Each structure stands twice: as C-alpha cells, then as structure tokens.
Amino acid sequence: MSGQDDPHQLDASAFHRTVHSFEFWFEAVEGYLHGREYGVSPATQEVELSERQRESLITILCNYCVGETAALDASSGMIGFAPDRISKIFLSTQVVDEGRHLEVMLHRLGQLGVRDPEAEILQRANRSLLKFKERLLDFVHASDWEAAVLAQNVILECMEYTVFRYHAAHADPVTSEMLSGVVSDERRHMGFGENDLGRRLIVAPHAHERLLKIKRELDPLILDTFSETMGELGIEPASRPDLANEYLGAVARLGFQS
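The chain above was modelled as a monomer; its predicted structure follows.
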C-alpha cells in the first residue's frame, strides 16, 4: 500500500484512512504474531513458578480477562453507532484484537492449571474493574460515542498499556511474550481514541466539561485496579511504574488536567 511504510508522509485525510484500515492492521499484527501460537513462539520455555507466583499470576490474568471482555463487548457494540465508516472499520479490527487477547489469556490460565476460568474470574475479579466495565457498557448501551471512546480507548487502554508493558518486562518468559503482543495492540487502540476525541473537542469544545466529569468518576476505579494489580505482582508502592504520568499524559493531550 502506498504510504504503508511511513503513513506519516500522507496528508491528514489519507493518514486517517490508512491507520484505521484492515490493511494497516493486518500488516501490523502479522509482524508480531506470525509463527506464535497463542502469542508465544515454540522456542519459549516455561519456568517453574512458586505456588505464590502461580496464584498471583492467575489472579492478575483473571482481571486482565475482565478488562479484555469489557473492551470486546464495548468495541463490538460501538460499531453500530460509530459516526463514520472509517471508525467502523477500525473498531472491527479492535474487536478481533480484543477477542484474541481474551483467548490467549484464557489459554494461559489453562496452562497454569485453571479448569474453570469463568468461575475463577468471577471469584477473583477486582470489584472496581467490574464497576468500570459496567459504566463503560452503560455508555455503549446509550450510544454515547464520546463517553464510550473516552472510557474505552483512552482510560481503559491507557491503564492496560501501562500495566501490560510493565508486567511483560518482569514476567516469566511465556507470559512476557504473550503480553508483548498485546501491548502492541493497545497502543494502536489508544491512538484511535486520542485522535478521535482530539478532533471532536476542537469542533465541539462544549463536550469538554461533560467528559471531564466522566473522567473524574472513572479515575478512582482505574487507579484502584492498577494498585491491586501492582500488589499482586509484589511491587512496593515506591517502585511501581508511574501510571499517573502515563495516564495524565494521555488525557492532557486532550485538554484534561484533573
């Protein structure tokens, strides 16, 4: 595709069409998924985990599954009221991404000895994350495009991108490789959200206050989920990655400060 190697050389309209296309998506994911069953190459070997490490990893993956299910349900629902065909196409690629993420995480749970992942997820799910999922789907059911994009493609994706990237750097080899592929997708999803809302807020600045109110409602839910996940990873508060800077950087680009 013309401009595929460096889409930033395209004009704004062509860039928008290109990076939200199935063609761009396919070339992106093929680069890091080819030859990797469930996101992991055959050469990557398991290492022995202590029982404490295994239990923590199961809890973390159960919560990842809640987040990925929320994004899968939301992105599929948003296709029906997306404002244009380019957004519908991008969301259809996101649905595939989220479905794959959920599949590889469920597979990893099976490798860790979980026989009934649905029951395990229900038992271990973080209540704040479940509440966030509920609120996100409220926006989807109300066909509230701006709120749904903010909640899913900015807030949730930013949290997942930060946590998955940090976890991948400190996880066992199988989990690390699995998460590295997921991180690549999350950055693309974030880019869509920031681009879409950024353009909308330029032409509809009155939406800023409403979205800021929604952000302030959702912030504590995301930060509580992040804190619990870092605790399961055994990371002391002083050593945890700075989600606040990652997150505040993303929302600051949209004009949200607090």
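The chain is about 75% helix and 0% strand.
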